[in-house]
Amino acid sequence: MKLLLASVFIALLAETPLADPDAEARAQSLMREIRCVACENEPVSQSSAAIAEDMRIRIREMVGEGATDTEVRDWFVSRYGDFVLFRPPARDPSGWLLWGLPFALLAAGTAGGFLLARKSSRKSPEIEPEDV
Predict the structure, then answer these.
(1) 60 lies in the same domain as 94
(2) Are residues 17 and 61 in the same domain?
(3) Which of 67, 72, 86, 108 is deepest in the core (most CB within 10 A)?
C-alpha cells in the first residue's frame, strides 16, 4: 500500500508546475532543449517515457533550488553526454566541422554559381548578321 501511495505521489509531482511562473517558464524552456535519452529525437517535454518523467522532475527540482540554465544543462551533460542537448556545444574540431560544414558548402556553391554565371556571360560572343 505504501508503495502504491509513493508511486501516485511521484506521478503527481512530475506534472506539478513550479509555484513561480517565471521559474516554471524556465523549466519548460529547458525541457524543450533537453532530449529524452529513451526516445532520442523527442524533447523531455513531449516524451511519455518513464525516464523523461524523471528528467522533468529533476529539471523542476534544480530550477526550484535556484540552479541556472547552464547548471541544469551541465548536470544532464555530465550524466548523458552532449547527446542529451538538442544544440550541443562545438568544443572540439569535429564539432566545429559539424556546425561549419553546411555554411562552407553553401558559400562554396554560391561562389561557384557566381563564377560560372560570370564565365558564361564573357564567352557568349555577339552574333553578327551574315551577308546573304
Answers:
(1) no
(2) yes
(3) 72
In whole angstroms, what is the distance from residue 66 CA to residue 23 CA? 9
Which residue range forms the structural domain that includes residue 42?
2-84
DSSP state of 65: T
Mean pLDDT calculated for residue range 18-27: 85
Higher pLDDT, 24 or 5: 24
* CA dihedral (44, 46, 50, 54) positive or negative: positive
- Does residue 109 fall inside a structural domain? yes
Place of cell 501511495: 5
| Three-state secondary-structure class, residue 44 | coil
pTM for the full predicted model: 0.60
* Same domain for 60 and 8: yes
Residue 63 located in a structural domain: yes
Dist CA 76 CA 22 (whole Å): 21
Which pLDDT score, from 0 to 100, does residue 87 have? 80
What are the distances in angstroms from CA 105 to CA 35, 94, 97, 110, 119? 28, 16, 11, 8, 21
Number of domains in the chain: 2
